[in-house]
Design brief:
Blueprint: H1 3-34, H2 52-58, H3 72-103, H4 110-122, H5 125-136, H6 141-148, H7 160-188, H8 192-200, H9 205-233, H10 237-242, H11 254-264, H12 270-304
């Protein structure tokens, strides 16, 4: 290999080493822990147990009732994650679409408002969560407003339904700008001739939306839905800061369960946590394959046109 052929490797090697140490190696270690048992941390002290950890997590008489499962907290986390993902993705698509439609119009200060809606995406999730926790705590800003208008303080993060609502709300608020940008780019790619033709046919704004905008924007909306679902399944930082999975297990999600099982419990079951992460990885792989298939189908459709 001559000098010119070796040059790229001089630049790639540091990145490959970092990738191998901090990405590939942890994956291998996680697989090892998923098939070993005990509470010992060091690999040489962990006995091989095969699929026992997976069987423990999947041991249920009725998967619709977490209380009937061997690891009921895991299945509560699974159903909480599923409920959160469906709710968040649905509302994310609706609010992002409305915001994109408004920001695509000729309004005063359009560039400013686009920046305002995208700004929360640039903030750290921990910072966002701390701000909202200050607003929602018992003696926080929101309760100050409630008391000022004659109401009583509400435990926004201390009651299960309210806690779940605010976790969903904060997640949507902090991420909506990114998905709005995707939909906005899709709106700007729609040819203006189609809207001119709709005006010539005297189509109402609602009919134009349903017959022109939404069908052509559908590939972008599907991408938003899949990306939102992938992000929702992995949610952790917002919930950890806001509620810590509580009250009780009302906002316990899968990643929170994995972290708590491996690092917070008095008896740390690393094998169970690793097995749970593998099940989560399978769900993420499925969602990623859906995204790739959707993207390729959208690209093929554009080429066909």
């Amino acid at each position: 290999m001559n000098a010119s052929a070796r040059t790229p490797w001089y630049f790639l090697t540091p990145n490959l080493v970092i990738f191998g140490v901090f990405t590939f190696l942890p994956i291998v270690v996680n697989f090892f822990y998923a098939f070993t048992g005990g509470v010992q941390l060091y690999p040489q002290d962990r006995p091989y147990v095969g699929w026992e950890n997976m069987a423990t997590l999947l041991d249920c008489r009725n998967y619709w009732e977490p209380a009937s499962c061997n690891k009921d907290l895991f299945w509560r986390a699974v159903w909480n994650t599923a409920r959160f993902s469906v709710l968040q993705v649905a509302l994310m698509i609706v609010f992002s679409l409305i915001t994109a439609l408004v920001l695509n119009r000729k309004i005063i200060g359009r560039g400013f408002w686009r920046g305002v809606f995208f700004y929360p995406v640039l903030l750290s999730p921990v910072v966002v969560s701390l701000i909202w926790k200050w607003i929602l705590q018992r003696d926080g800003l929101l309760n100050a407003v409630v008391v000022a208008i004659g109401g009583k303080p509400v435990l926004w993060l201390g009651e299960p339904e309210w806690a779940f609502f605010w976790v969903s709300f904060v997640s949507i608020w902090s991420q909506m700008g990114f998905y709005t940008l995707i939909l906005l780019s899709g709106l700007q790619a729609i040819p203006a001739d189609l809207y001119e033709a709709a005006q010539m046919d005297r189509a109402s704004p609602w009919r134009t939306l349903w017959r022109v905008t939404l069908p052509l924007l559908m590939p972008n909306m599907i991408v938003v839905g899949v990306l939102g679902a992938i992000r929702a399944v992995q949610t952790f930082d917002n919930v950890f800061v806001l509620t810590g999975g509580g009250p009780g297990s009302a906002t316990m999600f899968v990643v929170q369960f994995i972290y708590q099982t491996a690092f917070q419990e008095p008896i740390r079951l690393y094998g169970i946590a690793a097995a749970g992460s593998l099940l989560l990885a399978l769900a993420l792989i499925a969602l990623t394959l859906i995204q790739l298939k959707t993207t390729r189908a959208g690209s093929a459709g554009e080429r066909a046109k």
